Amino acid sequence: MSTGAFVGLALLALVVIVLLTALAQSLNIVQQGTVGVVKRLGEYQRTHEPGLVVIAPFIESLQRVDMREIPRPGDRQEVITKDNVVVTVNATIFTQVVDAKAALFSVANFDVGIDALARTALRSVIGTMTLDQALSERERINTDVQQQMEVVTDKWGIRISRIEIVEISPPPNILAALALEKQADQEKRAKILQSEGEQQSAINVAEGNAQATIRAAEGEKQAAILRAEGGRQAAILDAEGRAQAVGTVYGAIQQQAPTPALIAILQLDALAKLSDSYNAKIVVPYESIGLLGAAQTLRSVLENAPVEDGADDE
User: Fold this and answer.
1) Residue ranges per domain, the chain?
2) Does residue 285 sit in helix, strand or coil?
3) What are phi and psi of 182, to 5 degrees?
4) What is the Cα 16 distance to its own chain's centre?
5) Residue 197: per-residue pLDDT
6) Distances (CA, A) of 287 to 118, 203, 233, 297
7) pLDDT 10s digits, 32-82
8) What would the pLDDT profile of 102-146 be if each residue is shown by its tens digit?
9) Would you identify the CATH topology of the domain 70-176?
10) Is 204 helix (H, G, I), strand (E, B) or coil?
11) Beta partners for residue 96, in sequence order
12) What backbone phi and psi angles, to 5 degrees, belong to 115?
C-alpha cells in the first residue's frame, strides 16, 4: 500500500471518528425527574425537559440537574445551648431544585453550600434555647432552621421542603441527672395520684354512709308511721268494740227494765270480781259507800228470806 493510500485511510478514519463523536455529543437523553441545562461555550442557553435533546457538538454542552426531592443526612455536630450545655445534634434536610439555572450559576456547588448553611442555622437556633427547650421543642427547631435557610436557598433556586431533627444528645452526666429528675417526677405523680385516689375513696365511702343513714332514717320513719297508724287503727277498733259492747249491754238492760235492787247486786258482783284480782287495794268513791250499804242490806234480806214450800218439799 502506498503512502498516499495510507494517509487517505487515516483521514477517512479520523473523519468517521469525529462524526461519531459529534453525533454522540449532539444526541442526549434526559431522564424523567431531571432537566438538561444547555451551555454554549460556557454560557447558559436553555433548559430542556426530559426526553431527547439535540445540541450543537463541540460548542454546546449539556448538564443534567436532578429536580427530585433529595434527603440530605447531616453529620453529627456539637452545639452549645443557651445554658452552656454541649449537645450533639444531627438533622436530615429535604431539598428540591426548583430553578436549575439558579442552582448552577448562583452558587459554585449547592450541595456543599446547603450542608454548610444547615450547620450554621442549627448552631444559631439551638444557641438561643436552653437544654430543656431543645429537648422538648423539636418542631420549633425545625421551623426556625428552615426559615433561616430559606432566606439564602431561595436565591439559589432551591426549596427546603422540611427539616427533621434526628438526634439531640446531651452529655452522659446530664442524661443521668435528667433520668433522676424524671424518676423523681414520676414518683411525685404516683403519690399525687395515690392521694387523690384515697381522697376519692374516702369521699365515696362517706357519701355511701350518708346515703345508708338517710335510707335507714327514712325506713325507721316509715316504720314508725306504720306502727302509729296500726296503733291508731287498733285503738279505734278497740273503742268501737267497747262502744258496741256497752251499747249492747245497755240495750239489754233497758229491755229488761232493771230495778235499783238488781243494779246494786250487779255492782256488788263487780266489786267482788275486782277483789279477786292481784291488786292489794281497792279504792271506792265516797258516793258509792251508801250504795254499797244498801246493796249489803238487800243481800242480807234476801239471804234471810223464808224458803218457799216447793223448796221444802224438795
Assistant:
1) 24-66, 70-176
2) coil
3) -65, -40
4) 82
5) 87
6) 130, 72, 36, 17
7) 999 999 998 888 889 989 988 888 888 888 889 999 999 988 888 889 899
8) 999 988 888 899 999 999 999 999 999 998 888 888 899 999 999
9) Tetrahydropterin Synthase; Chain A (3.30.479)
10) helix
11) 159
12) -65, -45
Q: Which three cell numbers stand for residue 185?
A: 417526677
**Distance from C-alpha of 228 to C-alpha of 221, rounded to nearest angstrom:** 10
- Long-range contacts of range 126-134, CB-CB < 8 Å, 24 or more positions apart? 126/79, 126/81, 126/87, 126/89, 127/79, 127/80, 127/81, 127/82, 128/82, 129/81, 129/82, 130/81, 130/82, 130/83, 131/81, 131/83, 131/85, 131/87, 131/170, 131/174, 133/82, 134/81, 134/87, 134/168
Residue carrying C-alpha cell 381522697: 199
Position 313 pLDDT exceeds 50: no
Longest CA pairwise span in the chain (Å): 211
Alpha helix stretches (DSSP H) within the chain: 3-26, 100-105, 110-126, 131-136, 138-153, 172-256, 260-275, 287-304, 309-313
pLDDT (tens digit per residue) in 243-282: 787 677 667 666 766 666 666 666 666 666 555 555 545 5
The amino acid present at 253, given as its one-letter code, is I
